[in-house]
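Now for a concrete sample entry.
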Amino acid sequence: MKHLTLLALALTLIVSICVAKSPYQSVLQHSRIRGRPHGPNVCAMQKIQGTDKKYFTNCKQWYHRKICGKPTVISYECCPGYEKVQGEKGCPAALPLVNIYNTLGVVGATTTQMYSDRAQLRGEIEGPGSFTFFAPSNEAWAALPTEILDALVSNVNIELLNALHYHMVNKRLTSDDLKHGAAFSSMYQDFDVHIHHYSNGIITVNCARLVKTDQHATNGIVHVVDRVITAITQDVGSLLDIDDDLETLRTAVAAAGLTTMLENEGHYTIFAPTNEAFEKIPADTLTRILGDPVALKDMLNYHILKNMHCSESIVSGTPLETLQGTVLEVGCDGDEMTLNGKAIIQSKDKLGTNGVVHYINELLIPDSAKTLMELAEGSTVTTATKMFVDAGLSTHLSGSEAITMLAPQNDAFKGSLTMTGEMKKLMRNHLIKDKLSSKGLYHGQELETLGGLKLRVFVYRNNLCIENACIAAHDKTGRFATMLTVDKVLAPPMGTVMDVLKADNRFSTLVGAIQKAGLTELLNKPGASTVFAPTNAAFQAMPSAELNKIMGNSQQLASFLKQHMAEELLVSGGVTSHTRVKVMQGERLELGLRNQTMYVNRVPVVDADLMATNGVVHALNAIIKPLPPKVQSDQAAGSVGMTRTAAVRSGTRVLRNDDLFQKVMKSRSSRTITRVQ
């Protein structure tokens, strides 16, 4: 019991330590593990080829050897706070603990050290105190626009000093203290610096990435950052107000009633479409959305993420939730930030007190703000869309009517497509009254089309089908209507199973057999059955003697036919690799699907899904025969044999085992064990 208690305590401590780790510390630990073969306190770093950007490595990046889609080179460096010793492996020595001014030199932030001298900040960061210095790297100062740098260095006692003070906090903050969404008062007029600590281990301050973290000093701590940061005084709503390039967006935000939200507290990410982005949209579409408050709000919320994401936080494609409720795939391609795989971000990281703004040159329109016609654009149903238009149904696709469109994929249409009266009627029956969701459909449900037909819903283990057409993609839910992509052109039922067979000359022999066997009423009455219908060719392929024998006895004929009739309605889309169906007479049939062909007891179906009001017909060019019995494997048979042999010999074995047991119990070792207990 004592050992169990200690074990439980140990496990609790381990779990507590693991849970308490920050994302940054977790990534750092992974880098330490990867660097361990090279000596103590060595961290593995990944550097993007052709750049100076380095990252501690996490598990995913380590195996992919890519960051932002670009190949990386692995290097091994001393972990934060350690240094090499000549002649020894790894980084065994801790860095000397000196004041912040000298620490800037130790960590390579020599430009910040130089400007601290010029601004007469040296005395402050050499003296007593407990400071956090977010020190720009040498590269960060070099990347600063010339006019800004000139303005700073031309007035070192005020502008440069203020800029450096804004990089400082008057207390020691380690990486563990830099929590996501935190804000700390800087030493420049108490303006806040904004911290974001992302799940991938990246930490930013005002969107500048911490590239060297936790460099301890006697009077504080230094974190090296990859850019010079500036004070933030305006919210994101105000940022939109003062930029002429966002005039159309500003008008749309006001019309949607979102102005107040963008002025309140929050951590928003706004992908702000420029005036040019709005101009790229067709005038009719833009006018419709701007005049529809619901669609407009949906569209704008689709440009706003629920959480704040600086560009430096993105190292791979990540789905991020928007205020509209769906997700945007935010990623990167080298230095380019991408949205849904497209490099449309022309300016990034314009920071406000309650979020960040990235400028985009393309307007994002979510499905929820689109008409059916717009939903279909650029998709796999362009042929169906053209057919709807040719059938004179375009007003239904672009209007505000609540409908659901069953849109067959392009490859569902075969041969030449002539718009006849029948085809117009068929396309009309692909439009269902009411706006539906596939998740709300249930087995046996009936859906009424604009053409007046009732379509049945079939729910299978592997598929959801409406008559013969099965759902082939996720729903696209528009402003007023829904588009369901299906794998086939709809074949609405046009009569009973008997009517379907009579209307097709291929089944004349089968129809005669059904009538002779007295099964006509069975195939005419309401129900849900599946008929695997042998064609005339199938009957002709039978030996004459066998065919005559079956046809000469009505009872035997009825039994033969019922072996081809299942007691459930099964369309081809509901068949998996191993499907079994119960027939009206005889053993279950085994169905399968290979190369998009359906098989019944290994007989291929030559024409599937002939829909009827009381069932479905699948045509076969061969008679269904029972499958041969499955042969038991040699291993299984051997196992059975061994069991039987063991049973026969069990008496002798029990006696032998009993003798052995008595000898063991009388042995010295057994007596010793008894005493110990």
Q: What stands out?
A: The two ends are 16 Å apart (CA to CA). The first helix runs from residue 2 to 20.
